[in-house]
Amino acid sequence: DLRDRVFVFPQETQDSYVLVMAKPEQPLQNFTVCLRSYTDLTRPYSLFSYATKAQDNEILLLKPKPGKYQFYVGGKSVSFRVPTGIAESEHVCAGWESTTGIVGFWFNGKPWPRKGLQKGYTVGAEAVIVLGQNTTSSTPGGGFDTPKSFVGEMSSVYMWDTGILTEHVREAMKDRVFEAPIFGWRNLPYQVVGEVYLK
Q1: What sign does the CA torsion over 99, 101, 102, 108 have?
Q2: I want to staple 34 with a disulfide (CB 3.0 to 4.6 A). Which of 22, 144, 158, 197 is the partner?
């Protein structure tokens, strides 16, 4: 149970990340990813990367610059503009459903206007899931992009094989999760590679 703890990524690197050791049991028609991050980076960085043999950016949550998040499904992306202000932690959730292609996005517990992406697509289940790096290979440690490495703190990481509601997003923000996700901050099976610390 990692409640009240954070992963600290202290410096830009090509070989430091957190490998999540859980996977969905079957290909995904729906999913939601949530996490909290705290950084003063202004360059692009990757928060959550889910790579399969078929597609590096099967699922990717990336922040290309302050005030913007980019969310990939199956190698295609939509972006969401968010407020920029005093450095404080940002909680984001992004969800997608295959039947409509609708992407839901929440910033600090508030829903943003929905967008469409990859209607009818299926996300593969055989994946490598990495926090803090943009995977360029479906082999753990098989290739990373140093300029997109995350520097800062990350916590409250969750992934469901369903869509969720705004009330559930707010529960995830407080680590009081309503139902068992594929993985979550209270039961995260992980392996630290390189220089990442749990504080």
Answers
A1: positive
A2: 158
> Domain 7-198 belongs to what topology?
Jelly Rolls (2.60.120)
**What is the percent of the chain with per-residue pLDDT over 90, rounded to a whole number?**
84
Q: Domain boundaries in the chain?
A: 7-198
Q: In the numeric block, which tokens belong to residue 7?
A: 């992963």
The Cα–Cα gap between 102 and 94 comes to: 10
Q: For residues 45 and 36, give the distance between their C-alpha atoms in angstroms, rounded to a whole number.
A: 14
Residues 97-137: pLDDT tens digits? 999 999 999 999 999 999 999 999 999 999 999 999 987 65
Burial of 69 (C-beta count, 10 Å sphere; 0-12/13-18/19+): buried
Residues facing residue 30 across a β-bridge: 97
Residues 21-48: what's their mean pLDDT? 96
